């Protein structure tokens, strides 16, 4: 996915909005883990108990802090440092 992301960015005369770029490898992996957990839960919907492997959702791309459950967010860089060094923001503050 990182290669597809870089290719999509390079192929446009004007860089596309970041939300239009494919996900990074790390974020895709977290998404697949969460989707896999959902599938396991759906498959067990007619069972009395969930499968043992689904008991710890932290293994499936979720963070648990007290009673709050939030999606895990990747800490991997969104682009190579060489690209980040040459990209500039056109924001006006």
TrEMBL record:
The protein's name: Uncharacterized protein
Highest taxon above the source species: Eukaryota
Region Disordered, residue ranges: 1-23
Annotated Basic residues bias: 7-17
């Amino acid at each position: 996915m990182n290669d597809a992301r870089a290719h999509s960015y390079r192929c446009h005369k004007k860089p596309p909005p970041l939300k239009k770029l494919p996900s990074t490898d790390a974020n895709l992996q977290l998404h697949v883990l969460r989707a896999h957990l959902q599938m396991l839960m759906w498959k067990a919907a007619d069972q009395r108990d969930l499968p043992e492997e689904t008991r710890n959702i932290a293994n499936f791309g979720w963070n648990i802090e007290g009673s709050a459950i939030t999606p895990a967010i990747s800490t991997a860089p969104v682009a190579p440092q060489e690209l980040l060094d040459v990209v500039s923001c056109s924001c006006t503050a």
